[in-house]
Design a protein that fits this description.
It is built from 3 helices and no strands. By secondary structure, the protein is an all-alpha fold. The protein folds into 2 domains: 33 residues; 112 residues.
Length: 151
């Protein structure tokens, strides 16, 4: 054998060993390979979750704003009513009429306050229901997406 032939034989043997090693690494990689991870789908999944959370938060914020606006309105009305009651009591001459007017005003104010509290509770409840519906819809959608990805 000549040096040239020996060199060629050595190069061929080295290439064959490299090819065999490559096949072995590929087989091992296939064995330990995790399922494919589609980053675009994953990003879209989380974007939808974020959008649903944002919508639910906006609904809750709008509901809280509506409750606070209504509370300010009710506070103004109540202040005006107390002013009217005080003015009426100051103008009354008879003690019995003052007591009767006070009792009537108290009863009316109590009934009105109960109605106002119910209205405030309804505003808050509606906001909660709408926000929950958004989150629930996204949950159902995400479970369907996950089932689809798993198949």
């Amino acid at each position: 054998m000549t040096a040239k032939t020996t060199k060629k034989t050595t190069e061929d043997a080295a290439q064959k060993m490299a090819d065999e090693a490559q096949k072995g690494f590929e087989a091992m990689a296939d064995f330990f390979m995790a399922p494919k991870l589609d980053l675009a789908t994953l990003g879209d999944f989380h974007r939808k979750n974020f959008d649903a959370a944002y919508q639910a938060g906006k609904i809750m914020t709008d509901g809280a704003k509506a409750v606070m606006t209504k509370q300010v309105e009710l506070g103004r009305d109540m202040a005006q009513e107390f002013s009217d009651i005080a003015t009426g009591a100051a103008k009354a001459k008879d003690g019995d009429n003052i007591a009767l007017a006070g009792m009537t005003a108290f009863q009316t104010a109590s009934q009105k306050n109960m109605a106002n509290m119910r209205e405030l509770a309804d505003i808050a409840f509606d906001a909660n229901q709408k926000a929950f519906a958004v989150v629930q819809a996204r949950y159902v959608e995400s479970m369907a997406e996950l089932r689809g990805e798993a198949e």
